[in-house]
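R.M. (postdoc): so does anyone remember the format we settled on? I'll just put the structure tokens first.
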């Protein structure tokens, strides 16, 4: 792995567009290992599409490693975009894992087109804290591409010019917003849409406020991504006397056409909550574990050969839950019980 810093062009791309692609960034060991039991976890036959009963599946996490181990290049890039490794939360989402988001497509979508203007579910990722303009709880939304994503292959839609309106609304509302957020009605009128296309191993880094949603997979294959985040310790600083803004801060200032925002002050406390959309993903844990244990047994292996946080004892589970915010109280938005209940905040 090379450890070249981002080029000025890469940083400028992030500031101008709100996202950056880091090619070939995921360590191949994890790419192969974490994809190797995908179909066992799903309980479907890879070669029999009649067994693919859902178009879209969000899975829980069984394995996780420190971000820099999974993807050294993406970690280094993320550190640069937020202003340095010391700015990143040492606990929250400090590990990334195999919490796969699969888009399998349907027969219908093999024969029909779809456009970003038709898409619903636009959102930026925040189902776990009170959102202010300078909130950095989700500084960067990460898209780990675990499969190739060809054109028409169900890559995430990004809306570059949808970010400004969100920033303006947050600037106008220093009282902040509780998840689930509802700041996206302007998106169908936007013009600058990008669809993620990738090779397995590529990583996309999105500014935390960049709106995105899932597209349709017209190719009827397993498109697999994971979608963790980079969380910071302190809020973004939108009033630096020396003007030395980080790339993440520059995205917000550029969107608002400002050089600094000295007047902005949140007028309520910052709050963090249990992630609103975790529950329905975690509901899959036991069934996936059962299938993994059965698959191991079929090969003459014991339960201890199955690699899952949930088989490592209470301490390991507690650590994982702390990193994921599962130890926090529910927020005023409650929890989502189904994938449909969460479209606004979690369609990828
Ligand atoms: Fe998302």
């Amino acid at each position: 792995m090379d450890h070249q810093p981002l080029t000025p062009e890469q940083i400028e791309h992030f500031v101008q567009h709100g996202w950056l692609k880091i090619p070939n960034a995921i360590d191949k060991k994890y790419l192969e290992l974490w994809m190797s039991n995908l179909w066992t976890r799903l309980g479907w036959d890879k070669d029999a599409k009649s067994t693919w009963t859902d178009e879209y599946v969000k899975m829980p996490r069984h394995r996780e490693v420190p971000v820099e181990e999974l993807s050294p290049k993406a970690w280094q890039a993320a550190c640069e975009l937020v202003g340095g490794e010391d700015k990143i939360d040492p606990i929250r989402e400090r590990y990334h894992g195999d919490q796969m988001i699969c888009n399998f497509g349907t027969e219908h979508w093999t024969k029909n087109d779809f456009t970003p203007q038709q898409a619903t579910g636009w959102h930026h990722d925040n189902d776990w804290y009170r959102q202010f303009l300078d909130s950095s709880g989700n500084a960067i939304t990460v898209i780990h591409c675990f499969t190739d994503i060809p054109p028409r292959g169900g890559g995430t839609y990004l809306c570059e010019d949808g970010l400004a309106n969100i920033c303006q609304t947050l600037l106008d509302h220093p009282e902040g917003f509780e998840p689930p957020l509802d700041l996206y009605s302007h998106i169908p009128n936007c013009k600058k849409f990008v669809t993620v296309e990738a090779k397995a191993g590529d990583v996309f880094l999105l500014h935390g406020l960049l709106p995105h949603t899932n597209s349709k997979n017209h190719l009827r294959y397993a498109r697999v991504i994971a979608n963790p985040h980079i969380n910071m310790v302190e809020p973004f600083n939108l009033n630096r006397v020396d003007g030395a803004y980080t790339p993440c801060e520059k995205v917000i200032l550029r969107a608002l056409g400002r050089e600094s925002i000295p007047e902005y002050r949140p007028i309520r406390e910052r709050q963090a909550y249990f992630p609103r959309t975790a529950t329905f993903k975690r509901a899959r844990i036991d069934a996936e574990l059962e299938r993994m244990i059965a698959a191991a047994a079929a090969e003459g292996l014991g339960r201890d050969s199955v690699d899952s946080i949930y088989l490592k004892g209470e301490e390991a589970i507690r650590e994982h839950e702390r990193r994921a915010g599962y130890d926090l109280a529910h927020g005023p938005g409650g929890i989502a019980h189904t994938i449909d209940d969460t479209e606004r905040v979690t369609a990828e």
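R.M.: ...and that's the designed sequence above, right after the tokens. Also worth knowing: The domain at 8-256 is CATH 2.60.120.620 (Jelly Rolls). The chain has one domain: 8-256.
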